[in-house]
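Our preliminary data section would be incomplete without showing what the modeling component actually yields. Below, a chain of 266 amino acids is followed by its predicted structure, encoded as tokens that our downstream tools consume directly.
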Amino acid sequence: MKTSSFAKLYRTWLPAAVFSTAIAMGLSGPAGATAQASERVVPEFTWDTTIHRYQMDKDKFIGQRLTFHCPERPVGQSDAAIYGTDVYPSDTPLCVAAMHAGVMTSSGGTAIAQLNPGADGYQGSSRNGVTSGDLPATERSIVFVSGDSSSADAVRDQYMPRLTWDTKFTATGLANKDMTGQQFSFMCPKAPADMTPRSVYGTDEYAFHSIVCRAAVHAGKISMDGGPVVVQLNPAVPKVVGSIRNNIQSESGSGGIRSLVFLDAQ
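Predicted structure:
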């Protein structure tokens, strides 16, 4: 049988043991190999919760986002710890600040906060039933992502962690178990010409320790030219199933303590 140029491209990535199988399967994944993504977990906050609860008030998280849900506001909830307008200190109780910013009401709801570099100072105001105060500069700040998020996107893109083609998610410093359900942004460079094949585990839903850039190619979210990648940290799955996609061979195996899903970069 004559080998097509398309098949030759796969042959540069696959071990000899799996190449013949790939040809027989038409260079596609096994039937039924697509994993079903777990339902997203969003943490429930109290109206006093700050990002300290998630060990997120650190420089390595600048540009990353935290999605959370707040219940109805308790009667007598204090505004005493709220400072700023639209931009808030990073130790701010997020539900109260979200109400002040207008992305949530006293009935609660879901919001997205982004950790940013600190502001030179914070000016208070009265908004939406919440009064905030003035405060001098802090090291880091919080903004809320809603509607036109171009300014937040610009910060996220600037501070997005730059990975290599050997970086596992467990080596990014963002693999805290309390962050299950959250979405993280990374930047993958162009793949090196002499890149050595490394293991990726899963299809659509990937093992926790998978290599981020390689798994993103397998998932169809970037090419070997690299680009921005969004990873959602999901609860554990019992097993992940391997397949051949986009010139990448992934393996089957245990799902591990958590799993990864790749989303379209926004």
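The chain has a mean pLDDT of 84. The chain has two domains: 5-31+161-263, 51-152. Preliminary results of this kind motivate Aim 1 of the renewal.
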